[in-house]
Amino acid sequence: MSKKLLAALPCAALLAACTVTDGTPAGKAPDLAGRSLMWAEGANEDCEVPPNIEFGADGRISGMAGCNRMLGTWALDGKKIDLSKLGATRRMCGPKIMAVEDAFFQRLGRTVFMTADGDKVLCWDAEGKLVMTLVPEAAGTCQ
C-alpha cells in the first residue's frame, strides 16, 4: 500500500463515522395536493387498472385500492408523510385483484417518506428503502 493511501484511511474512517443518516431519502418533497396517482406496477394481465390514490388539497385521501375504495387523511411534513388514518371498504373480489390490493396496502403501510422524481412520487420506508413508485393516473382497461 502506498503511504498516501495509508494516510487517507484514518481520514476516510473518521468521515464515515461522523456521517449521520436518519433514513430520510435524498430528493425534494413532492407536491401532493390535488394530485391523482397510481401504482403502475399494480396492473396485471387480467386488469390494467392499478390501484390509485388521490391526495386532496384539504388533506383527505380517496382512491381505489384494487377491489375496495379507500379513504382517509394525509399530512406531509417536508418529506415525511403520515398515512396512518387510512380506511377501506371490505368487499371481496377475485384472488388476483385481492393480491394486488393487499400488496398496495402493505406498501402504503410501510411508507414513511415521499420524494418527487419528475412527475413521479417515490415512496420510502423508515430505513430509506424504496417501497413503490406512484405515477400520474392514466386510463386502463379490464378484460
Structure overview:
- The chain has a single domain (27-136), classed as Lipocalin.
- The strands form two sheets. The chain has an eight-stranded antiparallel β-sheet with strand order 7-4-3-2-1-10-9-8.
- It is α+β, with helices and mostly antiparallel strands.
- The longest helix is centred in the N-terminal third of the chain and has 16 residues, at 3-18.
- The protein has helices at 3-18, 95-110, and strands spanning 35-38, 52-55, 60-64, 69-73, 75-77, 80-82, 86-88, 113-117, 120-124, 130-136.
- A hairpin with a 2-residue loop joins strand 8 and strand 9.
- It is globular.
- It is 22% helix and 31% strand.
- The protein is built from two helices and ten strands; from the N terminus they run H-E-E-E-E-E-E-E-H-E-E-E.
Which bin fits the share of residues in helices? 10-25%
**Helix-strand sequence:** HEEEEEEEHEEE
Count, helices: 2
What is the residue-averaged pLDDT?
83
Structural class: alpha+beta
Biggest β-sheet description? 8 strands, antiparallel
CATH class label: Mainly Beta
User: Per DSSP, what share of the residues sits in E-state strands of 2 or more residues?
Assistant: 25-35%
Strand order in the sheet with the most strands = 7-4-3-2-1-10-9-8
Radius of gyration from the alpha-carbon trace, in angstroms: 20 Å
Cα-to-Cα separation, first versus last residue: 65 Å
Give the oligomer, counting copies of the same chain as homo and different chains as hetero. single chain
Broad shape: globular
CATH topology: Lipocalin
CATH architecture: Beta Barrel
- Total number of β-strand segments? 10
Uncertain runs: 1-21
Give the domain tally.
1
